[in-house]
Design goal:
Blueprint (H helix, E strand, L loop, with lengths): L5 H10 L6 E7 L5 E6 L5 E8 L2 H4 L6 E4 L3 E3 L14 E4 L2 H17 L14 E4 L9 H12 L11 E5 L3 H8 L6 E5 L5 H7 L2 H4 L2 H15 L4 E6 L10 H11 L2 E6 L13 H13 L4 E3 L13 H10 L9
Parallel strand pairs: 4-7, 7-8, 8-9, 9-10, 10-11, 11-12
Antiparallel strand pairs: 1-2, 2-3, 3-4, 5-6
Helix pairs in contact: 3-4, 5-8
The structure holds iron/sulfur cluster.
């Protein structure tokens, strides 16, 4: 803007940024799930994943696109199966760093001609807050970002199309229940007994299932909304049929739907994905117990789609532990 005095331009340049994210790497898989690796102003790396609606699941082709958004750099919660927690927590994302994950993906799609910038058509119709980090540990920034993404003057994405996923921060679940906006809530459960959950999720020691369940009940009473349980099936850890009864009891009590996700192997971690037979058997047993459940045919299995994997791989490459890459 050469019509502005040089001193003003300098001041603007020093104090403001037009874009908070720089694209470092983008991977697309065969089913067009796409993973974005962003560099922040302090050179930290975060990820977002764009997932198109699956005609096989929804019956017909749809324009629906869900964006999985990160809320922290790294994560302090140390779930044993997760790549994001492997190198600990670095910092919370700022409001603009959360909002811009949506804008930057849409900007890129405009450039590729997938959506029209002129007609104002939006690409991202749904958000799942389950990328890197524990969303409810960055509560204030997340809420501000979601208010912006929800507002008619902002992103215009309906609150009911926004799912916040937590590993089980009971006090923050109660706080979220008291907010005005009607977000959907998903619990990363991954075990229906304290004994199983504690093995893979240290958070369970702070908020055991009894406390987590009470907070979910409170959320449900206040919001009248169905809760979703995310349940990553890990071979030999939580895929045994002894899990079915406690899981079904919990789901019934909270009127929750269960989403089964076969584990995505993370390099350097010992966990394995169960066989398809075991996955199917687990699903059938849950359905037989009267629970609404789905088994995710994991999209993006071939693009390091599990939370934090692309970042980890790239950081190791930067550190000289692997091959360099081209964007
Ligand atoms: S699963 Fe979520 S809460 Fe657990 S370590 Fe990974 S990012 Fe953190």
């Amino acid at each position: 803007m050469t019509n502005l005095p040089r001193a003003v331009r300098e001041r603007l340049r020093n104090q403001f940024a037009l874009q908070a994210l720089e694209l470092v790497r983008k991977q697309g898989s065969r089913d067009t799930t796409q993973k974005f690796l962003w560099r922040l102003s302090d050179h930290s790396l975060i990820e977002s994943v764009l997932i198109p609606a699956n005609p096989a699941l929804y019956g017909e082709a749809s324009d629906r696109h869900t964006l999985c958004v990160s809320t922290q750099v790294g994560c302090a919660y140390g779930c044993k199966f997760c790549a994001s927690g492997l190198e600990g927590w670095k910092r919370d994302l700022e409001v603009e760093e959360i909002v811009e994950q949506v804008l930057a993906v849409e900007r890129g799609s405009c450039d590729e001609g997938r959506v029209s910038g002129e007609t104002g058509t939006r690409l991202v119709s749904n958000l799942v807050i389950m990328g890197m980090g524990e969303p409810l540990a960055n509560y204030d920034n997340l809420l501000k970002a979601l208010q912006i993404l929800n507002a008619p003057w902002g992103g215009g994405i309906g609150a009911r199309k926004i799912t916040i996923s937590t590993s089980g921060l009971a006090p923050q679940i109660r706080r979220l229940a008291d907010e005005l906006l009607q977000f959907r809530l998903a619990i990363s459960l991954h075990g229906a007994m304290d004994e199983t959950r504690e093995k893979i999720m240290p958070i369970n020691r702070r908020y055991p299932l009894r406390e987590l369940t009470a907070a979910c009940e409170y959320y449900q009473q206040k919001k009248g909304r169905m809760i979703k349980f995310e349940y990553i099936l890990i071979a030999g850890v939580n895929d045994g049929l002894e899990q079915i009864k406690p899981l079904a009891n919990l789901a019934r009590r909270l009127n929750a739907k269960v989403n089964l996700i076969p584990y995505n192997k993370v390099e350097g971690l010992p966990w394995e994905r169960p066989s398809e037979e075991v996955q199917e058997e687990f699903l059938k047993a849950l359905e037989k117990a009267g629970i609404t459940a789905t088994l995710r045919r994991e999209k993006g299995h071939d693009i390091d789609a599990a939370c934090g994997q692309l970042r980890l791989k790239t950081e190791r490459e930067f550190a000289g532990m692997g091959p360099t890459f081209e964007r």
